[in-house]
Design a protein that fits this description.
Blueprint (H helix, E strand, L loop, with lengths): L5 E4 L9 H17 L2 E4 L13 H12 L22 H14 L2 E4 L3 H13 L15 H9 L5 E4 L6 E6 L3 E6 L7 E3 L7 H11 L4 E5 L6 H11 L5 E5 L2 E2 L15 H6 L4 H9 L14 H7 L10 E2 L2 H13 L3 H15 L10 H11 L8 H10 L17 H16 L6 H14 L4 H13 L7 H8 L1 H16 L1
Parallel strand pairs: 1-2, 8-9, 10-11
Antiparallel strand pairs: 3-4, 4-7, 5-6
The structure holds glutamic acid.
Length: 488
């Protein structure tokens, strides 16, 4: 019988989770869901100095936003909890104790100052950095003396001085590290907290993790972990190291390339389903061309065989395009629901809240096609909401249009609109299109003038539909305002 598939996402709450990190969560989740396995969330919060307030909450929120539900972990519990490492310290102490008793680990009393000096010396001599093993073979007398000096020791792992550690990575194939390149790393720090390495292997073992899918940057930790598993007599999990994510200039993805924290994308108005689709394609593909896939399609097709070894490129333009496609596919009602929070937040303070759903729903067909991010809907629609448009009267006078002609044209249009039976876009078009020649202008000039008068800008959604959505009175008031501006 093969052991059940159990994977984990094990973030450290040291900052707001960035897209690279979340891609790891997505692949683990997909791997579990595709095979009917379990997806575990575990918080690796044992580095007190690097823990950032609010980061743990942001991690949970990021997963929830994308719809990545976890079967075991904080909030939901599970048979192998607690799932927060700072609540599992006795387990790590026990393991460190066992390794000490077995002679696979040792106490190290070197002070931070001594270690700094050692590193500086190594750098000066262009030697690889690493602990020089001074405390590895202390005599009982030396140990006694150090103990009585009151120095708090750390526990270090005894790396075999010779040989090599080899494993088969599911994505990369066989990987070998010479043990001589590994140093005697710390297991337990002097503050009583475990290092990442110790806590990680203890928990992966205790939680019966079958497969470790993590970022490539952890590849060099794997031989250390395997040696620890061996020292403990534990069966190690399988490993798969996911390709790096780079910016378009092929440097490591960073702030320089734009937003990187997942929740920033939410604020910018990206849809979670577009984000999931996009991030899944960073390192995985269905075939060589399919881009748009629903969550269900991705789950049913996901496999590690199609995860590439080469780095993936994060292309913001492609994400924006994809988001636009997802936005266009929303029903107008759904689009309105998603846009509303952005309008609530982004419209000028004088606009009355709450923004009415019905009114926003009328605007949806005017802008949905051209919306690439929900945050853009504020700038695309604000003139529908404000009482007073702010613009320079000169904006009304396009290409050689005289003030007198503009005034005349606006007056005529206003009078005719007042008497229009039905105030809808078809009637408006029927009225205004023939009127252009009547006021001595061409259609595009005339419509441009009206557009500025009713929206305060030159580029806006289609004129007649915009006027219909604004309503007759608002259009007339705005034309009045435009006239006043021209006559001033
Ligand atoms: N806590 C590590 C991180 O922040 C987990 C690495 C791993 O998955 O082993 O990514």
């Amino acid at each position: 019988m093969t052991a059940p598939i159990r994977v984990r996402y094990a973030p450290s709450p040291t900052g707001y989770p960035h897209v690279g990190n979340i891609r790891t969560a997505i692949f683990n989740w997909l791997f579990a869901r595709h095979q009917g396995g379990s997806f575990i969330l575990r918080l690796e919060d044992t580095d007190l100095a690097r823990t950032v307030e609010g980061a743990a909450e942001a991690i949970l929120e990021s997963l929830l936003w994308l719809g990545l539900d976890w079967d075991e972990g904080p909030e939901v519990g599970g048979a192998f909890g607690p799932y927060i490492q700072s609540q599992r310290l006795p387990l790590y102490h026990e393991t460190a104790g066992r390794l000490l008793r077995q002679g696979a680990a040792y106490l190290c009393y070197c002070s931070p100052e001594r270690l700094d000096q050692m590193r500086a010396e190594q750098a000066r001599r262009k030697q690889p950095p690493g602990y020089d093993r001074r405390c590895r073979e202390l005599s009982p007398d030396e140990r006694k003396a150090l103990e009585s000096s009151g120095v708090k020791p750390v526990v270090r792992f005894k790396i075999p001085l010779e040989g090599q550690t080899t494993f088969t990575d599911i994505i990369r194939g066989e990987v070998t590290f010479q043990n001589s390149t590994l140093d005697d790393f710390v297991l337990l720090k002097s503050d009583g907290y475990p290092t990442y390495h110790l806590a990680n292997i203890v928990d992966d073992h205790e939680m019966q993790v079958s497969d470790v899918l993590r970022a490539e940057e952890w590849l060099s930790s794997t031989p250390r972990h395997l040696l620890l598993y061996a020292a403990m007599g534990y069966e190690p999990p399988r490993f798969a190291h996911l390709p790096m994510i780079l910016g378009p200039d092929r440097s490591k993805l960073s702030k320089r390339h734009g937003a990187t924290a997942l929740l920033e994308f939410r604020e910018q108005g990206y849809l979670p389903e577009a984000m999931l689709n996009f991030l899944t394609l960073l390192g995985w593909s269905l075939d060589d061309h399919t881009e748009l896939m629903s969550r269900e399609e991705i789950v049913s097709n996901f496999s590690l065989e199609r995860v590439s070894q080469t780095a993936a490129i994060f292309n913001h333009q492609k994400l924006e395009w994809m988001n636009g496609v997802y936005i266009r596919h929303l029903s107008p009602d759904e689009f309105t629901r998603r846009m509303l929070p952005f309008l609530e937040k982004g419209l000028p303070p004088e606009v009355t809240r709450p923004v009415p759903f019905e009114y926003a729903r009328r605007l949806a067909p005017l802008i949905q096609e051209r919306t690439k991010t929900l945050a853009e809907t504020v700038a695309l629609t604000d003139f529908f909401f404000v009482e007073q448009l702010q613009y320079e009267a000169s904006l009304l006078l396009d290409k050689g249009l005289s003030r007198e002609m503009a005034i005349q044209a606006l007056k005529t249009a206003r009078e005719r609109i007042e008497t229009l039976d039905q105030f809808d876009s078809a009637s408006l078009e029927g009225l205004l299109r023939p009127l252009a020649t009547g006021v001595g202008m061409n259609a595009s000039g005339f419509f441009g003038l009206l557009r500025v008068a009713v929206t305060g800008r030159k580029a806006a959604p289609p004129l007649f539909q915009t006027m219909e959505a604004l309503g007759r009175q608002r259009c007339l008031d705005r034309m009045e305002m435009a006239l006043a501006g021209l006559q001033r």
